[in-house]
Amino acid sequence: MTETPTGDVDETPEHVEGLDRVTSPMQDYSTSQVAYGAIVLVVGLLLTFGLGLLL
Hints:
It is built from one helix and two strands, in the order ββα. By secondary structure, it is mostly helical.
């Protein structure tokens, strides 16, 4: 625990064993992951607008 300049107590641990979490924006994307995402996008757009225009 550390005390902040305003006098509050910060109970956030500096480092906790086993909690080495990495969030997605920090990770690199592979080409296959980008291609899969693009395919999912195209299929979703086709279903959304294609069915809407047909009906």
